[in-house]
Amino acid sequence: MRRFARVALLCLGCGLCSLLYGFSQLALSLEQQPGGGRERQAPDPGARQQAGGGRAGAGSAGRGEAGTGRCKNLSVSFWNSYWMLPSDVCGMNCFWEAAFRYDYMKTRPTEKMHLAVVACGERLEETVTMLRSAVIFSIKPLQFHIFAEDQLHESFKDTLDDLPYEGKVNYTLYPITFPTESAAEWKKLFKPCASQRLFLPLILKDVDSLLYVDTDILFLRPVDDIWSFLGKFNSTQIAAMAPEHEEPRIGWYNRFARHPYYGVTGINSGVMLMNMTRIRRKYFKNDMTPVRLQWGEILMPLLKKYKLNITWGDQDLLNIMFFHNPESLYVFPCQWNYRPDHCIYGSNCKEAEEEGIFILHGNRGVYHDDKQPTFRAVYEAIKNYSFGDDLVHSLLQPLELELRKTMHTYCGKVYKVFIKQLTKSIRDLYARRSKGR
């Protein structure tokens, strides 16, 4: 019986080899016939690129065209079946390429989200608290780009190295740098170092997209969610920001600005999502010359023209730029940049009333005085939270008790918007952990 089994197996192997040889000869004969097989489609390069999964056109000048072989150097996506490839593509090589690419797709690292902040003066604690809030809820890995004065670097290292990031966060520290010939002017514009953000596309040349935030930002939901706005940009949009005001009657730009500004009430640059590749490539319309200028060319002329008319420094320059290039801006709702102006005169951010606050922006120093205790309560709760503690009992419940004490203020009267999204973020975080994510 063993002898018969061996003979049958040998015959089966020989038959399979003969069958494969016959198919290969048939394919070769079809290629060599004028107009035969799939070669009729060759004059249409667009069709061939589509057959190759979108990358095919990159290698169209392959070995077949050089006359040294019949296989073209054509990249093929892993989902293309071997028998569906163009006839001048080497099936065996494409088969192996597909296998290796499929393995890469399974093992390639998760995309990092890049977050930048600029810290000068007494902003160390505030910046670290902001970074902590980003770490607590975010899902994908984070890369922090921290621009700080030299004397703050060691303090940042000591503090950040002690936080349990669980391997999902890296950070890089940078010095404060401005163009040499105009450094003094940029440094004294508005607050110290604030205008550094304007130069991030020119400094971080290898970073494709970036979320810039001020130091007084607190994330109440994953960074992943605002990062996803990048996928909503249309072909002309290069950045996303929120309006400066929702209510024109209390708006600053529409009442006092002495320069152009975006939209009805201007934009606030405390939370700015940027496709920096597009920013670096774009030529901007402007009111200084009929010639469009790139990002690195337009900044200094803008400052020279408007430096006597701007109050809020680099934010005003951004308003001017997007006034002339409104098609380049994606505007996200106010709950992604919720500030005291949204509640100190009465609640005027409807999206926050419905869904809660997503990103809290404590400008005007409200984290550090008693003027807006609702904002300060959220800041203190996140600052004092110890990683690893139960978020419900150590963060959410104590915070709600503190917020109830602020109901004598306008912001305190709507204190539930401060914990509505936070409650959901904590619930979602525990749900992910229960599933091992």
TrEMBL record:
Its EC number is 2.4.2.42. This is Glucoside xylosyltransferase 1. Pfam families: Glyco_transf_8. Belongs to the glycosyltransferase 8 family. It comes from the Eukaryota. GO terms for cellular component: membrane. It is found in: Membrane. One of its GO terms (molecular function) is UDP-D-xylose:beta-D-glucoside alpha-1,3-D-xylosyltransferase activity. Residues 51-67 have a biased composition (Gly residues). Residues 34-68 are annotated as: Disordered. It is a single-pass type II membrane protein. It catalyses: 3-O-(beta-D-glucosyl)-L-seryl-[EGF-like domain protein] + UDP-alpha-D-xylose = 3-O-[alpha-D-xylosyl-(1->3)-beta-D-glucosyl]-L-seryl-[EGF-like domain protein] + UDP + H(+). CDD domains: GT8_like_2. GO terms for biological process: protein O-linked glycosylation via N-acetyl-galactosamine. The keyword Protein transport does not apply. Glycosyltransferase which elongates the O-linked glucose attached to EGF-like repeats in the extracellular domain of Notch proteins by catalyzing the addition of xylose. Keywords: Glycoprotein, Glycosyltransferase, Membrane, Signal-anchor, Transferase, Transmembrane, Transmembrane helix. InterPro entries: Glyco_trans_8, Glycosyltransferase_8, Nucleotide-diphossugar_trans.
